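Quick illustration, no need to memorize.
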Amino acid sequence: MEARSFPALPTPPIRSKKPCANKFNLDCLLMEVAGANRRWRWPFRYRGSRHESAVAQLFSLGIMDTPIATKPPKRRIMALIWILASLALTILSLLSITSAIHQFYLDTATLAPGTGIRPMGMEMGVGLTWTASILIGGSCALVGLIIALKQRRWVLVSIAVLAGVLSWVPMFAAGWGIDHVVTLRKLVMEP
């Protein structure tokens, strides 16, 4: 193979037509670089279109970092706080219901099988507990869901939906617990 020789690249003119060509300071140097970039491509641009731009290419003058706008940390965790409040209320409701059902189990130990019972006081307390779990816990989960949707944090959105569904668990746990004690003790619930 034969070695090819390439023609020498044109060199920029040494004489400058700029008014500050006789002075040498930073402003003149920057003007020279921008002007050279505008009219002569080689040291600053390696590829691009064939037609020359009349605008100085700012990428050759350096990179200016812009600070990234950050949100205050309080706003980032607000959704998580509401979701955790919902889950905490659900757990407290479950603990309260479990305690009430355990007390009901102990109170019915002395009753004979087949005895008719009407545990209105215990059912009212348990009913208020799971109603609070649904209303207040579900509301907290809903607020967390709205904040997470605004922030487009999809993991928190799914956790908020899960917390809203879990706020209904104490209602089912209360019904199942009371029925289990009645069946276990062989009691009869009076209407």
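The chain has five helices and two strands.
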